[in-house]
Structures are given as C-alpha cells and as structure tokens.
Amino acid sequence: ALTISASGWANQGAPFAPLSYWLDSNGFVHLEGYVAPQAAYTANTTMATLPAGFRPGFQLRMNAYGNSGGNPALCGITITASGAIIVITTGMGDIDFSTITFAQAN
Fold first, then answer.
1. What distance in Å separates the CA atoms of residue 1 and residue 106, rounded to the nearest whole number?
2. Nearest 5°: phi and psi at 30?
3. What pTM was estimated for this model as a whole?
C-alpha cells in the first residue's frame, strides 16, 4: 500500500482496498484503492508518491472515477515522472484509483 502523505485524505476503509500499486508482466503500473477526503483540500496537492520503478517516464494527466456532492464525477489526477500523485480537481468526495494504468518508465 502507498502512504498517503497529504493531510485531509485517507483510505476509505473496508470493504474497499487501500491506495496501492502493482506492476504487471508487460511493464504496466496499475493503481487501485478508494480514497476519501477527511476535510477540505487544496487542488494540486501531492496525495502520495510512487516509489522508483513504479513511475511513468513523463508527467501524465488522467481521470479517476469518484463523486462530487454524491453524484458521479471524474477527478483529474496528475502523476509526475518523480512519482507524485496529485489531485487537481477540487470538491471531490471519494476517489477510485482502480482505472489508473500507465507504462513503467524505461
């Protein structure tokens, strides 16, 4: 599991998986887990950092599914080449990272 470094965020808890990552045999990194804000948060704050070997070669901007005000919504996520996972959308409720997949840096 990844350590959530930003205050105001935490793993959702059972029955959902904690924020984590894994590498498949084809060199793709997969994120999974369900994270929820515990308080108001600021956009463009690093939530967690992927370790070396599980990072993209270039900065990526992707969408994760979540909710905003109880309604389904997309949440903008940036993953930097240094491994920072940054939430760029404000006003989100829970965020599901299970749709985030990218090629491992060479």
1. 23
2. -120, 135
3. 0.92
**Rounded to an integer, what distance in angstroms lies between the CA atom of residue 62 and that of residue 19?**
16
d(C-alpha 68, C-alpha 100), whole Å: 19
> What length does the chain have?
106
DSSP conformation letters of 47-77 = EEEPPTTSS-SS-EEEEEEEEETTEEEEEEE
- 45, β-bridge pairs: 87
Q: Is the peptide bond preceding residue 15 cis, with omega within 30 degrees of 0?
A: yes
pLDDT tens, the chain, 106 aa long: 898 987 778 999 899 999 999 999 999 999 999 999 888 788 898 999 999 999 999 999 999 999 888 899 999 999 999 999 999 988 888 999 999 999 999 7
State how far the Cα of 29 lies from the Cα of 91, in Å rounded to an integer.
27
Phi, psi of 28 (to 5 degrees): -105, 135
